[in-house]
Design a protein that fits this description.
Elements lengths: L2 E5 L4 H12 L3 E6 L15 E4 L5 H7 L5 E4 L6 H6 L1 H22 L3 E7 L21 H20 L2 E7 L1 E3 L12 H10 L4 E4 L5 E2 L1 E3 H13 L9 E5 L5 E2 H8 L3 E4 L14 H7 L7 H8 L1
Parallel strand pairs: 1-2, 1-4, 2-3, 4-5, 5-6, 6-11, 7-10, 8-13
Antiparallel strand pairs: 9-12
Helix pairs in contact: 1-7, 4-5, 6-8
């Protein structure tokens, strides 16, 4: 039986990957320290569930022998908390990733799929393509790009098969809705359910490429198991929908009651994924649009 480990596996994206792997017949280890500021964690009873930290080399050394694939989702993943505490973000996202890669190498893991971020593109013009230079606007994107380069180094120097995903704005079931820094669609749906005005940051004309979490989970499974040539490892691949939509349009599709609040530092005005590279390499296509998903929710 194929054996996989998912870090951050009780969180939003990780839990969907766990479910996808179990449905595909994998034996799954789910590792999560529950440090994220989530209102709920999604542990699947069919997995081997471990509460622990990716920075614990002794723990990883005990879990990884016999594991075929590692899906690395664990991270400090919110921009504003990263700005407030950059050292914690760097510790988790850079050193934690390096620790996981070294332990995976020592254990003979076949392939590591790393969840990175489109915020690496910063103020680059859209569409965002993997050949654009990094433009990190905050500690979160710096930490993720640093971890990307460590993944590439482990492929190029040590032969560990790594694949780097730059997710755009992931939405869907189980997305965090707690606090002011969770993903925008989660905030809007929470405010709608509470009968509150939707709070739009800035002027609302910012445009985002929203990609469905089920499509992201499917991308992970395909990337782990598909046979590809060695030159595809250690490379970055965009995972998005390939079109963008304004925050104003998202808000108006949920409620007519909204207000505007001041903009935030360290965030790009627009992103848009060019997904040509991933589609051509792995033959993956997004199946859900954000408009259709929101319509089903409300």
């Amino acid at each position: 039986m194929i054996k996989s480990l998912v870090t951050g596996g009780a969180g939003f994206i990780g839990s969907h990957i766990v479910d996808k792997l179990l449905n595909a017949g994998h034996s799954v280890i789910c590792l999560d320290n529950e440090f994220a500021d989530n209102e709920i964690f999604f542990w699947n009873d069919k997995a081997q569930n471990i509460k622990g930290d990716i920075r614990d080399a002794n723990l990883l050394s005990g879990l990884l022998p016999g594991v075929d694939y590692v899906f690395h989702c664990a991270a400090e993943s919110r921009i504003v908390p990263a700005i407030k505490n950059p050292l914690n973000t760097l510790d988790i996202n850079v050193l934690g990733t390096a620790n996981l890669l070294q332990c995976s190498r020592e254990a003979g893991v076949k392939r590591v799929i790393f969840s990175s971020t489109s915020s690496a593109y910063g103020l680059n013009p859209v569409p965002n393509v993997e050949t654009q230079p990094e433009d990190c606007l905050n500690p979160y994107s710096v930490s993720k790009v640093s971890a990307e380069k460590i993944c590439s180094m482990y492929s190029n120097l040590y032969g560990l098969q790594t694949i780097i995903f730059r997710y755009f704005n992931v939405y869907g079931e189980r997305a965090p809705r707690k606090g002011q820094y969770c993903p925008v669609i989660g905030i809007f749906l929470r405010q709608k359910e509470a009968g509150e005005s939707l709070t739009i940051v800035g002027d609302g004309n910012q445009r985002r490429d929203f990609v469905y979490v089920g499509d992201v989970a499917n991308a992970n499974l395909i990337a782990a198991t598909k046979e590809i040539s060695s030159n595809h490892f250690g490379q970055v691949y965009n995972v998005g929908n390939g079109y963008n939509i304004s925050i104003n349009e998202i808000a108006k599709s949920i409620s007519d009651d909204f207000i505007y609040v001041p903009s935030r530092e360290g965030e790009a005005f627009e992103n848009l994924a060019d997904i040509t590279k991933f589609k051509s390499t792995f033959h993956w296509e997004p199946q859900m649009t954000v408009e259709n998903w929101i319509a089903k929710q409300i």
